[in-house]
Structure formats: C-alpha cells, structure tokens
Amino acid sequence: MPNTTPTPVTVRLEDYTPPPYLIDTVHLDVDIRKEGAVVTATLKCLRNRMVPAGASLVLDGEELETLAVSLDGQQLAADAYRIAGSQLVIEHVPEQFTLQTQVRIQPDKNTQLSGFYRSKNGYFTQCEPQGFRRITWFIDRPDVMARYTVTLHAEKAVFPVLLANGNPVASGDEPDGRHFATWEDPFKKPSYLFAMVAGKLDVLRDTYRTYSGREVQLAIYVEPGKLDQCAHAMAALKKSMRWDEQRFGLECDLDHYMIVAVGDFNMGAMENKGLNIFNTKYVLARADVATDVDFENIDRVVAHEYFHNWTGNRVTCRDWFQLSLKEGLTVFRDQEFGADTHSRETARIREVRGLRAVQFPEDAGPMAHPVRPSIYVEINNFYTATVYEKGAEVVRMIQTLIGWRAFRKGMDLYFERHDGQAVTCDDFVAAMSAASGFDFTQFMTWYRQSGTPKVTACGAYDGAAKRYTLTLRQSCAPTPEQPEKAPYLIPVAVGLVGPDGTDLDLGGETTRILQLTEPEQTFVFENIPVAPVPSLLRNFSAPVVLDYSYSESDLAHLLAHDSDPFNRWEAGQRLFGQLILSNAARLARGEPQDWPTSVIEAARKVLNNGSDPAFIAEALTLPSEATLAEQMDVVDPEALHDARNGLLLMLASGLEGDFARLYARLAPSGAYRPDTAEAARRRLRNLCLAYLNEFDKRNYRALARQQFEGADNMTDQFAALSTLANVVGADGEKALADFYERWQNEALVVDKWLAVQAGSRLPDTLARVQSLTRHAAFDLKNPNKVYALLRTFGANHRYFHAADGSGYRFLGEQITALDPLNPQVAARLARCFDRWKKFDDGRQAHARAVLESLRRHTGLSSDVFEVVDKALG
Ligand code: TRP
Ligand code: ZN
Questions:
Q1: Are 859 and 835 in contact (CB under 8 A)?
Q2: Is any atom of ligand 1 closer than 6 Å to the C-beta of 266?
Q3: Region 686-701 average pLDDT
C-alpha cells in the first residue's frame, strides 16, 4: 500500500532549522515496467555537524509503496522504522551510514505531473519544489545537496532514450529486449534539480565552445517528427550562453546540456542540472505555427533556464521562502537578455504591462505575500508573479541604486562567496552591499512587506528663484497579516521636461535618481529656467503606483516629447486610462460616452512621429480591463468594457485614414523573416487591422479575411483570426472552423484556437467555452489546454465577471473536476477569483457561493484549499 499524501501544515520562515542529517551521495536504480517503476535508492548519509547528535532520521515520501529498507546492508525489521503519513522515521542511526530503500511508484497514474509521470512519448520528471519525494524516500529540502548516479532500465523499443543529469557513463542491452543507461552528475545538487527521462524522442544536436575553449555537447529532445521546430530554441540556447559569458562572466560548467520538451507540464520549464525539461510551448517553433511573441518567449525561457545554472543551481536556495533568490534574479537576467537581443524599450514596456496586469492585482488581493514570503501551506502556490516579477524589480532597483559596475562586482562577490552553497536573500543583498558600500538595511522592506506602495507626487515651480520643488509621499495599504507598513527605500528616477520638449539640465545630468526613504520628503532642483512638466519614475524605477495629477495637456506633452521612452508610453497609458475610467463612470450613471477630440490628435502624433513601429504599437494598445479595474472602488465590468471599447472605436474613427494607409504601407515586402524589425512591423500592422475592424465595414472584414487566408506565417494569420473572432458575423465562424481544420494536429496551435475563443468579447463566449470543454481538442488532464481555455476565460474580465454569476459557477465546476487530477493547476485556476471582493454585492454573492462550496468540497487539495480559504478571508 502506498503511503498517503501529507496533511496540510503551515510552514514558517522563522521555524527554519538546519537538517540533522546530510546526504553525500545518491545511487538511484530505476526499473521501469508496465506494473510500475521500482526505485532503489542508496544514500550515503552523515550527521550534520552543525546540529547536536541524537536526532531521528526523518525522510519525506509521498505515494510510495515501500518494498524494503536497509541500513548499512542490514534489512530493517518492520519495527525498526515507522512510516507515518508522508514520513519515514528511523529512531537511532549512527554518525555515518548507508541507507537503502526500495519503493514502487505508479508513473502511469500520476496525473499531478509532479514526481515521475507518463506523457505521450515516455516518462518525465518534475521535482521542484517537492516532487523528488514522490520518486523515493529522501530528505527533500534544498539545503541537502548530494552527488547523484542514476541507472535507468526500460524496454528498448518503446523507450530508446534514457537520460538523467550529468554525463553518460555506461549503457547496454539487457535480457528481454530491455536496456539500461547510467548517468553521473559531477555537481552536488539539491533534490529539486534531479531529472530523468525515458522515451521515444528525436534529437537535434549541436556544440558550443565556451570562452575558455571547452566544448559543450548540446541536445534538444522532442517528440518524433518535430525536429524541424527546434532550430530556434537551439539558437536561443547558444545566444544565452554567449550573453552570460559577456555580460556576467559566467561560463557553462557542463559537458552535456540537454533540453527535453514535453507536452504535459505544469509550468513553463525547469532548470534541472544539465537536463532541462521544457513545456513544448517554449521549445517548438516554426514560422507557420508560432507567432513572433512565441519566438520571443522561447528566447526568454531558454535563457531563463540556462541562467539558472548559475543563479539557482551553482548557488541555490536554503529553503523555499528564499525562492525569489533564484527566481527574481533569474527573471531579471532573462529580462536583460531579452532587452539586449530584442528592443530594450519595448521589453521594459511589456514587463511593466505584465506586472500591472498580474502582480499588482495579486499584491492587492487575498493572496498578497512578500517577495520573500514568511508563511505558506502549499509551496506550489508561491510560484507567483510577486516572487518572480516583483522579485526581478527588486533586483533591478538594487542595480539602479548602486549602478551597473557595482552590481556586477556584487554578482562576482556573490558567486565567490557562495558557489556550491544553499543561501538566503540576505546573503545576496550582503554581497551587493559589500561590493558597493551601499546600506541596504531599509531596502530589505521590499523583501518583507507585501502590497504595492503608492507614491504621491506634488511639484511647485518658483519662477523668481528658478527653483522646482518636488514633494513625494509614500504609503502602502494594509495587506492580509500586515496591517502596518514601514517606509520603503524607493528609487525615483526624475527628469524635468521643458516647454520645448527637451530635458532640462539637472546639474550635468538629465535624469536624477532620488532616494525616497521617509513617509514624506521634499527634493529641490535649482537653476530651473522655466516651469517644467515632471517626468517621474522614469523607466519604471520602482514597482509602485505613482499618483500625480497630470493635466491632459501635460500628458500629451510627455507622450510627444519625453526622452524616456518608457515614460512616453506611460503618459499615453495614463491619458487613455483616465478617459476610460471617467467614461466608465458616465456609463454607470446612465450618461452617454464623452471623448475629447484632443486624444485623437495625441494618438495621431504617436502614429506619425517616426518612432519604432513596436513602440507605436505599444503606445496605441490600451491598458487592459484588469489593470484599469484596480483603479476603481467598485468594479463595474460591463461599464469598463464598454468604455474601453468606446475609446477603441473613437480612435478608429478619428484615425481611420491613418490606420488604413499604415496597414497598406506596412505590407510585407518578401517572405517571412523572424527578426525584431520585421516583428515590429507586423505588430503595428496587425494593430491597424484590429482598429479598422472596430467598424462593422465589409471592406475591413475583407482585409482581415484576406490576411487570414494569405498569410505565410502564424503571426499574421493568428492576428487576423483574433480580429475576426472578436467581431459579430459569419467571417469569424468561418475563420475559426478553417483554422481548426488546418491545425488540429498541432497541439500548440490548437491551444491558440481555444484561447482566442475563450478571450473573445462576443456575448456567447461562456456558452462557447462550455461547449469547447466537451470538444475533442480539449483535455482537462493537459495543463496547456486548461490554461488556454479555462484560465483565458477566467481572465476574460467582462464574461468571467458576468452579473448573473454564470462565469463564476462554470469555473467553480471546472476547478472541482480538475482538483483530483492536478491540484497545482487547479489552484492556479482558482486564483481567477482573487479580486471578487472588488465587485458589487450581487456579483460578490455569486462568487462567495462558489468559493464556499469549493471550500466545503470533501477531498479538496491543500493547494486549492489555501487559495479559496484566503479568498474568503
Ligand atoms: N523553476 C522553474 C522556473 O522558473 C519553475 C517550475 C517549473 C516549477 N516547473 C514547476 C515550479 C513546477 C513549481 C512546480 O524556471
Ligand atoms: Zn526560474
């Protein structure tokens, strides 16, 4: 009988104690058979000298059928150890000993996709954060680092490829058509970085020569038949390796670097030492099946996992509260890589757009937690936008405060001090402090406190004294468990823009980094010859909400002239946001929409000022409903949706000629090329197409149809499909049907087809999504399908938050059905309910009913329970 899954317990950062025993080496023998896999683990253990002698040995295990346990070669009698729930306890062990356990596991029944599991073309692992205990008994925590040797056995014809971390050291045939392979990882690693694969896979091979001249064997393993979709990921891997050498002086330490793509995967990808396992979504790409955004995301995720080899693997986390130590830092690194390889300005804009759409709502909701959480029930629920994206912002602020050179010195020192160790966020900041002399004491608030700080700015110009004074106030609203907030150290990058649009001189610089440390502080700028418009928080120098009462003409001025591209974009977003919110309020009062024509002129200037097309497209993309909803006291999703669409139509009407001309002018001049400039051209052209189709005009529908039918690449084809799927009429239906007909055998393209329907603004969206859950293309067991259809619907602001509660009830049913199969993904879906308390009483009553019935559900996972229980508050 397998032992049980754990009963939920609350884990606290303050309770951390070092492990009483360490594991020096691990030998795993994994025998894969139809009846299950038998895992024999031989662990060389020793007492941790940092801890007093006498403690029991406690191992973690989940759903393991224990066949045998022996200590130093002696089979243990049943009373010499005990298995209680998810722990195996041995009371008296020597200072050093060899423990051997044998267990059987059932990978074919593992629908959680954590541990060892079956997917279409073989068996795969996912061990972060606590999957290794689902493979064998182990001290499954990241501060226990061991050297691993792994032997896999399986039927040769069905599973010809056998992989594990490190280097291949032996392989050969065995009786009955079976074979084996042994892999040895020379590096000590925590168990969460363990990986193994047994499957039938094709491989793309390449090599990379590091700057010190070592040759690394590269390999990407994919489902047979997909080799022609691997080239981009391979190129991304080599680019990342070069970039990390050049930018951070970090060289690949491996002889073999393998990436394996799998279609069933809970998240994006996993940085297992030398054997990354990736969601197919972040490997497979070819121009006809992947969009420009997909290509760029692949670059970023390949880089992210590769960068983990230093930030995460060589230096790892002491405990899971320190998750942002590796994730925030690695996201920062992949962001910088993206900025260097694509366009820095649009990269920053997209990061902030994402932060506002996901992290800000998280920080304002029931699941708010600090970048370094201090308490959790289910650690899987803390792989969040706060730990990842806000964590990256925190690292970026450190760089802003001390400058790039000191930051690089700090990174060098961090590796010098901690290579091979499992450390904390404090260790990282201490290295930065030692390298720069900067005092980060107050800065640590960013790791400790949840919530998005608000900075209120107020400026005054004294013409006689030629002096500009800027008063900044900071505050942070209470979050669950944190009623009081200490002031943050906030880097506020400020420029002053003159009436002619140029930056005023601030004593030899045009942007000054102010350090706001007090609740209220005044900063003085001398020798300012004219009244300026302040450009605040340039390049989004801190993850805060900035409040300054800009007039519409100030915003138009900044949108046209600010030398900081981020703030040029930001001015437009503010302008659009203010107008949408005031029109939503009008609609809610039953008044008609009212748009100033000046907004058209401001937008026309952006369209025609000769900027990078990618920037223009970003600047003319309106803030999302989810982002704007955060600024409303009580969200009226219908009024918000109608007002936002009202502005789209208003801009389309005012700029119809411009959009039509631009659409024609930006037509492709040759076959598809994936580069940044071409991607920018497509982005802007497709935005024009979408604006033009705000009108119900046959000629624009025809343009979209033509583009849909004639495109030689997925970017243009999918953009046309998306446009058509959001307008009433037969064109959309036909395009959707044709698209499915053509791409039904490409799983990742089918995901796009599901998502475009789930995110649609057409009124029958819920009914359509409901019927799609019964379509052959959908599969509740596959996370990509769940995310594409169900999570996209949960993010469809207008229809998920339908007044009659139908959206809430539908998602509640789906969560209930999914939870027993895959609690991690079910919990992610449950997060769609986070903001339910921002809505009116009627909607709240519907959401509460669904959440309460979920919480009452017998057998609910601790994953979903934690989310739902916090949501109910
Ligand atoms: N460490 C992975 C990354 O960010 C995240 C990850 C992959 C993960 N798979 C997971 C986290 C499963 C939790 C559960 O690169
Ligand atoms: Zn990561």
A1: no
A2: yes
A3: 97
Indicate which residue's Cα is closest to atom 5 of ligand 1: 270
Catalytic residues: 305
The DSSP letter of residue 629 is: H
What 3-state class would DSSP assign to 822? Answer: coil
Q: Determine if the peptide bond prior to 129 is cis (ω within 30°).
A: yes
Where helices occur in 562-697 by DSSP H, the ranges are 565-588, 598-608, 613-619, 625-629, 637-654, 656-665, 676-692
Q: What are phi and psi of 660, to 5 degrees?
A: -65, -45
Q: Which two tokens stand for residue 809?
A: 């009830």
Phi-psi region of 279 (alpha: psi -120 to 50; beta: other; left: phi over 0): beta
Longest dimension (CA), the chain: 95
- Write the DSSP symbol of residue 543: S
Label residue 611 by pLDDT band (50, 70, 90).
Answer: confident
Q: Is there an atom of ligand 1 within 6 Å of 128 CB?
A: yes
pLDDT in tens, 396-444: 999 999 999 999 999 999 999 999 999 999 999 999 999 999 999 999 9
Residue partners of 4: CB distance under 8 A and separation at least 6: 62, 63, 85, 86
CB under 5 Å of ion ligand 2: residues: 327, 330
Q: Which atom number of ligand 1 is nearest to the Cα of residue 312?
A: 1
8 A C-beta contact, residue 520 and residue 475: no
* Average pLDDT of the segment spanning 76-102: 95
Strand partners, 860: none
**Residue for token pair 């064997």:** 217
User: Is the CB of 488 within 6 Å of ligand 1?
Assistant: no
User: Vertex 551, ends 550 and 555: CA angle to 5°?
Assistant: 75
- Which two structure tokens, joined as six digits, stand for 176? 């009955």
- The first and second tokens of residue 625, run together, are 């409903």
State pLDDT tens for residues 506-557.
Answer: 999 999 999 999 999 999 999 999 999 999 999 999 999 999 999 999 999 9
CA 184 to chain centre: 31
How many C-beta atoms lie closer than 10 Å to residue 102's C-beta? Answer: 20
